[in-house]
Amino acid sequence: MAVTDSGGTESARTPAKKPNRLFKNLTAKLASVPMILTAIVVFIGCTGWTIYHSFTKSRLLPAPDKWVGLDQYERLWSTRRWLVSIENLAIYGICSLVLSLVIGFTLAALLDRKIRGESVFRTIFLYPFALSFIVTGLVWQWVLNPDFGIQSVVQRWGWESFTFDPLNNADIVIYGILIAGIWQGSGFIMVIMLAGLRGIDEDIWKATRVEGIPVWKTYIVVIIPMMRPVFVTALVLIAAGIIKVYDLVVAQTSGGPGISSEVPAKYVIEKMFQSQNLGQGFAASTMMLVSVLVVLIPWAYLEFGGKRRD
Amino acid sequence: MNFMKATTAGIAFCAAGAVSAADLEVTHWWTSGGEAAAVAEFAKALDATGHTWIDGAIAGSGGTARPIIISRIIGGDPMHATQLNHGRQAEELIEAGLLLDITDVAEAQGWKDIINPSSLLDSCTVDGKIYCAPVNIHSWQWIWLSHKAYEDAGVPVPSNWDEYVASAAALEAAGKIPLAMGQQAWQSSGAFGVINVAVGGVELWNKINVEKDAEAAGGAEMAKVFEAAAAARAMAANSNVQDWNQATNLVITGQAGAQIMGDWAQGEFQVAGQVAGEDYTCLPGLGVNEVISTGGDAFYFPKQGDADIEAAQKELAALLVSPEVQVNFNLKKGSLPVRGDIDLSSANDCMKKGLEILAAGNILLSGDQVLSADTSGQIEDLMVEFWNDPSYSAADAQAKYAEIIGDAD
């Protein structure tokens, strides 16, 4: 919000009389007041409220007067389920970030080669995105079921010793969820990438062809750097999806076997509503916020801090 | 106004006609075959009074439904009546003044004298006022044995836990799963509780769960319980179903030898047309310690601020405990009625066993009554991990368990 009205317009104007900065673009500022209020009251206000209550012994109802300091955090970090959740989120997060981008971009680049029936393929690839995570989770629960899914099909083809049963194996269950997540999300990333590729000027391609640069190299050296804003958009969308992954796990494994596919969001929800322990849930959600900030702040510093310097 | 008060007071006696008919939305999580048949009895009885039962069944177990129910009450969109397990789950809702006080109905109906055991009513009572209508007694302490599975394995049906453990090898040799077990957390935790009472005895159970004695929870007696649970875990290793009724189905079809599950499993056997004693055997207290816990379901009535609806809510409360409804409902549900003064001669073998134990007074409180939702949740987290991870040793689990009991409030 704040970024949009700085920069360009001001430098273009002649500095004859110093205008009052506050009243510059008054209509635009007035129009953004509701959004600013929403951001301050709803997002920041509620975040503050949550963080405050994470230091209390709130049970089913918030209890602002029962201050317990860091007790909730101590309990949180000594809970195995939370530690497993964090580990799962890290695995799921890194893999899904990398794979979504790679698969999404590759598919987009292939479609961009002006192949026949592009719209058909685009529809097919985007289709999973139209399904909710709940449906995705249930579908993949069946696909990965050893008695009905991939394993039994391959065994029936004659490869008797084939086993592929990630959902019942505590060590690899998170990859079973990852497969479903990628299947659902990469089509959407592909569409974003495709839009980005369509935004590349045709002349650039002509120029590289004249120079005799191979196609793959053009993509890596020229096109991808040009698509930086598209990648940032995709990154933000994927990252938001990662941190809030919940329904997929609930539908596919409900955290099992045991606690081996638990994720932080599920811990928060269950502590808040099922165990009737708001304080513990708030402590966990505050830790989720902190983990987002840990990633976001250095990135924002590099991104915006860097620009100001040049 | 006076007219309203008069009708409210006399509501239990003069049913329809005195008040305007109301639509009552009732939420519950009774969705399996046997359960749905039972809840239909309530609906039928309420519809007969001129009010309308609007069914708000929430699929999934109590763990899924309870948060939905509670957030609706807290969020200002309360239903007219709802199932909860009585005990500490609604404690804070009552303290916050969100639930209707139905003491007048309880007094008019004389619940104090008829509800047996009286601990059920105590669990509905806060500061001398009654907030819920208990509808049934559910006990966890049962093991269900499949006659077909034992026939196929060529061994006699065991009559207690030790015999059962000994028969596991024969079952396995015949390609059966010795112990059917759903993988949801509450099932793991419940089965552990049953083993706890059967192997460790009632006294130990009370010491840990009622007095919250962390030393007893970490002691040698309890170590035996954890060893037994680890043995049970090995027997359930091949059971990869999720829901409890899928696990019960393994027993009904003879694919599994047994299931440790509360008496609600009975409803499933009934729906499948099986006969107690012929097709399946039930052993209360795993055949070792014949006790049953007396937790169960109760209905709470969130405040609506509308006198007409309040009157209808109270009418429903009285109806749920009335003799005829109690008999019809509990026969379908497989649970025990909350009043000792009704005739259940049509009850089957297993229910009769339960009634005898109840009459003899061999009862314990249920986990819902003594532990807060938070502590139960922690124990569930521990148990679901323990049951599903064979490398989690009994000693480690016990240490963690003792820690949870030590922190319990």
Automatic annotation (TrEMBL), chain A:
Keywords: Cell membrane, Membrane, Transmembrane, Transmembrane helix, Transport. One of its GO terms (biological process) is transmembrane transport. The keyword Signal does not apply. It is found in: Cell membrane. InterPro entries: ABC_transporter_permease (IPR051393), MetI-like (IPR000515), MetI-like_sf (IPR035906). Gene3D superfamilies: MetI-like. Residues 86-299 form the ABC transmembrane type-1 domain. One of its GO terms (cellular component) is plasma membrane. The chain crosses the membrane at residues 30-52, 89-111, 123-143, 172-197, 218-243, 282-302. The keyword Phosphoprotein does not apply. Belongs to the binding-protein-dependent transport system permease family. This is Glucose/mannose transport system permease protein.
TrEMBL record, chain B:
It is found in: Periplasm. Transmembrane segments: none annotated. GO terms for cellular component: periplasmic space. The keyword Transport applies. The lineage of its organism: Bacteria, Pseudomonadati, Pseudomonadota, Alphaproteobacteria, Rhodobacterales. It comes from the Bacteria. Residues 1-21 form the signal peptide. Keywords: Signal, Transport. This is Probable sugar-binding periplasmic protein. Part of a binding-protein-dependent transport system for a sugar. Belongs to the bacterial solute-binding protein 1 family.
